[in-house]
Amino acid sequence: MHSERNIPRHVAIIMDGNGRWAQAQGKERIYGHMQGVESVRSALKAAVRNGVRYLTLYAFSTENWGRPAEEVNALMELLCDSVIRESPELQKQGVRVRIIGERSRMSEKVQAHLARIEKETSTGEQLTLLLAINYSSRSELTATMRRIAAEAKAGTIAPEEIGEQTIAQHLYTADIPDPDLIVRTSGECRLSNFLLWQAAYSEFYFTEVLWPDFNEEEFDRAIQAYQRRARRFGKLSDQ
Ligand code: FPP
Predict the structure, then answer these.
(1) How far apart are the first and last CA of the chain?
(2) Ligand 1 centre from 23 Cα, in Å?
(3) How many domains is the chain partitioned into structurally?
(4) Phi/psi of residue 100, each to 5°?
(5) Is position 6 annotated as part of the catalytic site?
């Protein structure tokens, strides 16, 4: 059972190290991604068990298109197959899936699969799983600014009315609370264009563990590290 004390409401994870994990065993990179799906399953289970309400996973960045076509195609296929295969289990666990990212560059088939999983899981109330696919924070912010500018031009919003809330409500993550905890695996200590606006007050947890080795115990360890942090949001600790 989880303690109610100081559980992060929203955990976001940069899943990194699949390729290195596979290569270390003399295997193809895609083997690491396949093993990574097992870690996604574990993270989801641990998130539900701990009482986390939102879990965001960085599954494919806009920069990932630059990888060899073979790896890109295999990753897209793996993503689609996994979400479709897991759909009944996700529904059973009360998980609602929401995709964040620019869909237009994905194939019709991928777009259809993603729309299907969103629809099938739309009534889940236990946890919202945000899958960041073809996502980058700068492109999200650019799209947001374009939409707000168009609204200003059309006269539906006045420039002086534009506040932080206006921006937040135009992001892919509208209505989702900011991440309390951002985890990155594989020893890299950077954000890589992930949730730049939303991460303003997030706590960070970096671990050397490669994503395919990130099991439920590792997830619990990240939560425990978060529970030891004092979040002040720019104020003093006694305020
Ligand atoms: C980073 O490792 C991982 C990715 C780019 C893909 C993550 C995708 C999955 C775990 C598969 C499916 C996900 C879901 C949500 C079902 P890397 O390839 O950059 O590793 P490296 O840094 O060692 O090269």
Answers:
(1) 31
(2) 13
(3) 1
(4) -120, 135
(5) no
Which tokens in the block code for residue 69? 């076509």
Which among 11, 13, 44 is positioned nearest to 132, based on CA atoms?
Answer: 13
Instruction: Look up the CATH number of the domain holding residue 57.
Output: 3.40.1180.10
* CA 59 / ligand 1 centre spacing (Å): 6
**Does the C-beta of 36 come closer than 6 Å to ligand 1?**
yes
Sheet holding 127-135, edge to edge: 95-100, 127-135, 54-61, 10-14, 181-184, 203-206
Q: Is the CB of 15 under 6 A from ligand 1?
A: yes
Q: What is the CA radius of gyration of the chain?
A: 18
> pLDDT of 193-203, one tens digit each?
999 999 999 99
Confidence of residue 174 (pLDDT cuts 50, 70, 90): very high
Structural domain boundaries enclosing 84 = 10-136+178-227
Given this model, what pLDDT does residue 158 score?
A: 97
86, part of any domain? yes
- Indicate whether residue 223 lines ligand 1 (CB < 6 A): no
- Measuring CA to CA, how many Å separate 165 from each of 3, 55, 67? 32, 22, 36
For residues 55 and 223, give the distance between their C-alpha atoms in angstroms, rounded to a whole number: 13
Average pLDDT over residues 116-122: 97
35 part of a folded domain:
yes
**pTM tops 0.85, yes or no:** yes
User: Ligand 1 pocket, 79 CB below 6 A?
Assistant: yes
Q: Please tell me the predicted confidence (pLDDT) of residue 1.
A: 43
Q: Is residue 201 part of a domain?
A: yes
CB-CB neighbours of 127 under 10 Å: 19
Is residue 193 annotated as part of the catalytic site, yes or no? no
Instruction: State how far Cα 140 lies from the chain centre.
Output: 14
